[in-house]
Amino acid sequence: MSLGDENDGFGGGSGQTRTRLPEGGSGDVYEGARRPAARSSRSLITVVGVVVLLVAAIAFANRGGGDGADSPDTSTGKGPGSGAPTSATGVRPVTGKNGQIPAGFAHDQQGAQSAAVNYSVPLGSADMFDAARRHAIVDAVYAPDIAAARQSDLDKVHSDKGFLTRIGLEEDGKAPSGLTFISRVIPVGSKVEDYNGDRASVSVWFSSLFGLAGEGSQNPVSESWYTTTYQLRWINGDWKVADFQQKDGPVPVARDQAASSASEMADAVDQFGGFTYAR
User: Fold this and answer.
1) Using CB atoms within 10 A as the burial measure, which of 110, 125, 276, 277 is most buried?
2) CB-facing half-sphere around the CA of 149: CA atoms within 13 A
3) Contact by Cβ (8 Å): 129, 157
4) What are the tens digits of pLDDT across the range 81-97?
5) Is 194 helix (H, G, I), strand (E, B) or coil?
6) Higher model confidence: residue 193 or residue 24?
7) Which one, of 229, 213, 201, 206, lies nearest residue 266 by Cα?
């Protein structure tokens, strides 16, 4: 773990975000502007992506009606193929909260994964740069015997003038006038590394957005990829963080999409709420 990294490998937010696939319609979106027969590579990729989604949807629809005998056991966090599903399988998402942070996770491997993933969001959010909010987050997610020491470590980092200057923030951790500070974690998946009942080691793979959005920003918002492994302990009916280690990647190949403007990025962080519950 390195508390002095410029972005701490984190990013986060609050609110809820839903994804909706476009619905088909009777009209031709290219009416009056037909495309030539030779399609671009990007159009081909889009068509292939739609076909894959349709095949996956059909396969999912055809799964129903069985007796469940062939269904994989997801209670252990392990399954066939490259990884277990990251949807809530067998354990209902928690409804309790400690402040704005989900609480009351199940005392099993899936509950440990849920805790690790959901804790990664506030721990990587812009709220970590506000002293009062940072203290509330640390008290909510860390084991009681660890929280005080971790508070001290994080306070030193987030009040260090050199660190704040390097990432473009003012001495109080706020963004300069006219700029929007963005720090968000977007979990991609999780897996159990070790589990013995009251202790668990869970790795969370995620993308991080970090930087200052706005005209004249010297630290534009950039994307990074990390895997953080959390050491969790079952304490007073919930999972709590005892320690964590972080490493780079896995990092996917970047697409040929053009970067958005500074104003578009600043607007996006205000218009799109972050995830409050994963798995």
Assistant:
1) 125
2) 7
3) no
4) 445 555 544 567 787 88
5) strand
6) 193
7) 213
Q: Long-range contacts for 127-136 (Cβ within 8 Å, ≥24 apart)?
A: 127/12, 128/8, 128/10, 128/12, 128/154, 128/158, 128/183, 129/158, 129/169, 129/173, 129/174, 129/181, 129/183, 130/173, 131/155, 131/158, 131/159, 131/173, 134/158, 136/99
- pTM for the structure as a whole: 0.68
DSSP codes of every residue in 110-152: HHHHHHHHHHHHHHTSGGGGSHHHHHHHHHHHB-HHHHHHHHH
**Token pair belonging to 148:** 């005080």
pLDDT at 248: 95
134 phi/psi in degrees, rounded to 5: -60, -45
C-alpha span between 113 and 126 (Å, rounded): 23
CA distances from 82 to 86, 190, 192 (A): 12, 12, 14
Quick one: pLDDT at residue 270? 78
Set out the domains of the chain in order of their start, with CATH numbers: 84-271 (3.10.450.50)
Q: Report the mean per-residue pLDDT for the chain.
A: 75
CB 224 within 8 A of CB 210: yes
